[in-house]
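User: Sequence in, structure out. Go.
Assistant: Echoing your sequence, followed by the structure tokens.
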Amino acid sequence: MKTIHWILVAAAALAGEPAVSAAQSENEYPLLQVETGTTLMASAGSGDAIEDEGGMGFDLFTTLPAGRGAWGMLLEAETHSIANHLARSGGGFETHDAFLSGEATLAELHYTFPALGGEWSVGLLDSKVHIDVSAVANDDKEQFLGAAFVNNPAIAIPESDLGLAYRREAGPRAPGFTLLAMTGKFTPANSSRSARAVFLAAEAFKPVGPLLVRLGAWTHGSTLRIRGNARWEGNETGHYLSVDGHASVLSWNLRAGKADLAGEVKESYFGATLRIPLRQSELGVGIGRSVRNGAALSGEHGSSDYLELFYRFTAFQRIIITPDIQFERINGIHGRENLLTARVRFRVVS
């Protein structure tokens, strides 16, 4: 049934009158562009599961026109005071240095070009750039920091990996759509071991008045082997909805999703975020709830409630300062655990 739903989403996006992608414009790929950013972060939390930590990150994004398209590269590097990562949501190919307690990551390296009425990207892709995108809550460097508000937790979204993406803009009557196929590493809900698989997603999107509505479906299948014996094999599937909107000066996002995971585990999520512009600053509020249930979960059976507040302002014209507070309540069959984390980000963009 989920496979049929996935096909219907793709078919609905393909229907209607053809839409012309902006990528077909001669000026779509300008001359060489380089964007850099430096982020410093300090963190403190309550409970044994959260340690005080600090770190610094650097990101470099480069676009180089070539032929009918352009090469894009995103390089990320970070250092941190302890072994745990600080709010890192990217993946890719990594190098580690235990002495410096840091890493450098090639998060994106892809070629983008126009064809067949849309835009193609092939290479090392960041899946978060292509599906479940939101202008309100999608950037952990300048917006919400919690993973539940960066992407929908009910999507088994892979980290940066090899893949192919196609995007076609919406027309006057036809919705736009995105198709994504990429490899990735996944951990089944009923196992602590990971396995590689092919991730497929289809997403239709359409502006509706002041709203931008996205409806998508995804699936992946993999085989987890231990000492040559197959221990888990099957598909995980899900579908999701994301709505961006604005009212007066306010901007908001709603996310909802359901997933059928391995071991007859089902997961659902609903979250809402709101960004309120103030005088030369901005306030962000996010609230969400995820629920997992199934025979394979045992002690993990339960739900999680999320709350996040941030206040962002600019100092000296180029330094973005963002204090951030996150609260998570984990409700399990063995009791309840409350986690509170306070962070502050300093980001310089050039």
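User: And one key feature?
Assistant: Confidence is low (pLDDT under 50) at residues 1-27, 82-100.
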